Amino acid sequence: MRLRRRPDTLARRLTRTLLLCVAVVWALCLVGVVIFVNYEINRNFDNELEESALRLLDVSAHDLDVGGMPAPGAGPVVEPPPQASGDTLIFRLVDGSGRVLLVPREAKPETFFDKVPLRPGFFNAEGWRVFTTRHPQRDLFMQLADPRSERRHAVRRVIIGLTVPMAAMLSILVVLLGAGARRELAVLRRLESEIARRGGDDLRPLKVQGMPAELQSVGEHVNRLLGRLSDALDVERTLSANAAHELRTPLAAARLRLQTALEGRLERADVQAALASLDLLSQRTEKLLQLSRAESAAGLSMQRVELRLLAATVAEEFWGTAAVRQRLLLDVSDDDEAVSARGDVDGLAIALRNLVENALRYSDGRVEVRVESPATLVVRDHGAGVSPERLSTMRTRHVRDAARPVGYGLGLSIVSTIVERQQGRLELMSPPPDGGQGLEARIVLSAQ
Asked: What's the CATH fold of domain 302-444?
């Protein structure tokens, strides 16, 4: 059976990344330290080698003066080996011609000296570091050798001394980084839990206070998405509630009239009443669809709208009826400058149509449609007007005039919703600001 691979977590990935960065920086620092330590160790060894060679040169020259110079062709004078840190120094004293004058006792013949030039300075030969110095007054040269392996051994000890503790610290750092990453990412798990609890019955905004800036931004975007989902669900519930409220009466009336016709008591009045109920049902269905479209802002296209052309188009729809043609007046100025606004032409047409329809229904006098600068649509009727109390409730849906119980109580609610969706405002005034009776409705939009 194939084992399921455990999913990688953000805490592990963050720990690995931080640990890798720390390890790379540590390795670079270690390389720098090794280079510096290697330089310092070699410099210290060279200083000791040079100091030992100068001292040994004085001692050897004094011994030659006391014991005498060896005869030409004779072997070198053997001296007791000087001790330095418990090790025998490898040296030899030679004259200007290269003849060996002095070597330590029990020293093995070393051939690497022959490869070192006879001049002051440091030289490397066959794994040895050789320092050559010349007597200031005599033609004598002291050559002192130090094995380079000792230097490498000292450098290795430094590297081991740095690497072992740091490797142990890296192991501890793995635990600390993992624990720190899990602790700091706990807020992410809290945000995940908050999002997981949200659903159709719980669309409350997420609590993003105290979170890091990045997670606050994510939470705010999620909250905006939840808000849009909540609005969409509210529109759906509102449409269902409005449909149940508005369609029940015409459906019942049409069903009663048609049932009467089926029972054989068919009269023309019943058929006309059934047709009227179906017309009412159709009109209310259209109103509900308009309201649903306005609340959901579906298909909202913000663009430049020429308000005079919009008002003329809506007025022509009502002028098709002779009685309305006598009552509805369109007042647009003759200025060459166009009056335009930024908005959705279909939504504004629905809003203006509802205002004109309400004005024609609730007043017996004439109705005026005006376009004013900078971007305002005005619908005014010359009826009896409304009281301040009634004016304050006119935007509430399903609220009708008790004196004239016609309409559906949705028109101004639709207008108000459409205008708000387009960053405009709906103003209702009774009596109108220029005096007289009636009600004036103004749609004030954002100028193009």
From this structure: Heat Shock Protein 90 (3.30.565)
